Amino acid sequence: MSCTLFIFIKRVINLKLKTKKRYILLILLFLIFFIITYKSMADEENRENRVVPLGEADSLKMTIKFGAGKLDLISGQEDVFKGNFQYDKSILKPNIQYEILGETGILTLSQSIKKDLDLPFPYKNRWNLKLPPGIPLQLYINTATYSGDIDLTNLQIENFYLNSGASQTNIVFNQPNLIDLKNINIKTGASTIKMLGLANANFNEMNFSGGAGSYTFDFSGNLIKKSKVNINAGVAKIILKIPSAIGTKIIIERFPAVKLDIRGFVKINDQTYISPEYGKSAAELDIEIKGGLLDVEVISLTN
After folding, report:
1. How far apart are CA 59 and CA 72, in angstroms?
2. 26 & 88 share domain
């Protein structure tokens, strides 16, 4: 279109003055029309605030299907879900469904994940979610390429699942989880993930699978039972931060490319390391790490 317009303007220059003025006026009108049309076609930013009362549900199963963008999650009010949604493409409009089956509330937040990736950048897609702290919660998060701050402090997390593409994520437990967390399952692509206050999560087992990236597991907090951690990663930097007061055993499958920096632990054999407090308490960590081309750093935290 720009090439055609250039040829048209060149011809106008060679016209007589009276005719030239007419054509210049036509060009100006055309440009004005084009600008107005373009602006009307562009999507305006949308902001939605949604509130979902949970009714008589005794527990909540929540599924989040999120495309590319920014996802923030924190604790909110006792028996209400609240969400603020900001987006500037109509395809990103969230779909929210809630029903009660038996005594369990089923809350699903979704938007197209596959189609979002085909949208031209830049575009805005941000969810700010407030989850109810007064009810046991099973939380399932499925995302594309995104960044997220997932603060699970003051929530009653019963199961936590995260499946993401390339991402940058912070997962936080600043206070002890109020119920037993049966499973933490995380599967991610090439990402940077930091998990803080994991001893507060009160979990039975964690299974982590990651591609190339950087992964920090900070076990600060109050560990009250024996917890199992399985880590499987590709070309990755793995940092374990473990309070010296927590009895811990670490098993690392040794590959030629594994780089180790382990402080504050006793080496039992080529694969096994234990902390001085291991075997002295029922509240302990058993950590097993598998993968290739790993750089593993273990830091013993002191008060």
Report:
1. 22
2. no
Mark whether 165 and 184 lie in a shared domain.
yes
Q: Given this model, what pLDDT does residue 293 score?
A: 85
- 276 by DSSP, 3-state: which? coil
Domain that holds residue 26: 2-41
Specify the number of domains making up the chain: 2
Do 231 and 195 touch, CB atoms closer than 8 A? no
Specify the pLDDT at position 25: 59
Are 64 and 123 within one domain? yes
- Same structural domain, 177 and 34: no
Q: Are residues 30 and 75 in the same domain?
A: no
> What's the pLDDT at 113?
59
Distances from the Cα of 216 to the Cαs of 103, 175, 183, 194, 297, in angstroms?
37, 18, 18, 5, 10
Query: Which residue blocks in 68-164 are alpha helix, DSSP H?
Result: none
Q: What's the confidence (pLDDT) of residue 209? A: 97
Contact by Cβ (8 Å): 139, 160? yes
Q: What is the dihedral of CA 35, 36, 40, 46, to 10 degrees?
A: 80
**Which structure tokens are listed for 279?**
């075997």
pLDDT of residue 22: 56
> Which residues of the chain, if any, have pLDDT below 50?
2, 5-6, 12, 37-42, 115-117
pTM score: 0.83
| 146 lies in the same domain as 219 | yes
Kindly state whether residues 72 and 122 are assigned to the same domain.
Answer: yes
